[in-house]
Amino acid sequence: MRILITGGEGQLARALTAAGPAGGPIGQVISLGRSDLDVTDAALVRRAVADAAPTVVVHCAALTDTARCEREPDAADAVNAHGTENVARACAAMGARLVAISTNEVFDGEKGAPYIEDDEPAAVNAYGRSKLQGERLARAAHTDTLVVRTSWVYGGGAADFVAKVLAAARAGRSLRFVTDEAASPTSAADLAEAVRALIERAAPPGVYHLTNEGDASRYAWACEILRLAGMGGLTVAPITTEELRASGYDGPRKPPYSALANTRARAIGITLRPWRDALRAWMTARPEATTVRRGMRQ
Question: 192: domain CATH number?
Answer without folding.
Answer: 3.40.50.720
